[in-house]
## 1
Amino acid sequence: MERIIAELLQDFERGALTRRQLIQTLALAATAGAAATAIPAAAAEGKIIPANNINHVSYQVADYARTRDFYAGLFGMKVSEDDGKTQCRLSFGDNILVVRTRQTPPRVDHIAYTITNWDKEKESFKAEIDRRGLKIVQGDVNTSLQIVDPDGLGVQFGGLRQ
């Protein structure tokens, strides 16, 4: 977590992130940490969808190849699923950074969470999303679903491979 915050501050200091983007991303990180120990009010009424780790972070950048080369060259991240045009995956440890050429300035598009027992319980997890009145904006129950959090950030969740 310290490394992520340090990188965010460096991006902000060199003008790659706006103040608003920095604050939103830091708030998201703090919220994710707090969520691990807090029980949401709605959870008391229904089924908890148990996230067990961050599956990937989707990072929209001006030039995915430049970003790919930076992270692979500096940190030794393993490049995979590179389409040669707009996106690739950068793996390190059990983490994935999905880099996509989409827009300037760079921004985190969504965070994906791996859900415990997704393959066995995916229908009941979808039913819980429906029960809570949340709108699925992308995906299908076979691989993953995406909703938005109260602040508009994409929240994707599913099995290990999404």
## 2
Amino acid sequence: MPVFYARSFGACYNPGMQYADWISVATAWMWVIFIAVWAASALFAKKTAKRASLRWWLVRIIFIPIVIILARISGMKPGSFLLLYIEDPALRAIGAVLVLSGIALAIWARYHLGRNWGMPMSEKADAELVTAGPYAYIRHPIYAGIFLAVLGSALVFGILWVLVLAIYVGYFLVSVRKEDEIMARLFPDAYPAYKARTKKVIPGVW
């Protein structure tokens, strides 16, 4: 994740750091917090009853190294031709706000899921249909939050992150369809009505 941009913790206290660099470090720490919360809360999730098929595990295996490589490239010197670095502080500040908003939305959704959280396209034992918090408006707020965070990272760290965004969108579209099918099967009475009154990721739009 973008944490690679901050080459050392000491960089956070460098008085000569430029405003844009402070944005990068702050954004990197947002991702660190996100990963820490995700890892800690995963320890309390319910037992998985059915995992995603092998082909989707292969997609994840391919996706993760791409994200790590791009995150490492994000530590290159600003102005790099490959990075296509955005130097406008205003745009980078907007990107940081998007990252903060996206991570906050994902953590808010994760909080309401509680022990029902699981890996994408998997099924939990004793699953419950969660309709509280952001789930009262959209069915996939975690995906929506990560989308905002990755989009914001493209503005903060470089246009090359658009590749991560494109890969994520493709994975998201497949996951949403599959997870809607799983939930409709697990909750045949309640899910159709819930689906009718909510949207996938954007309240009142889609």
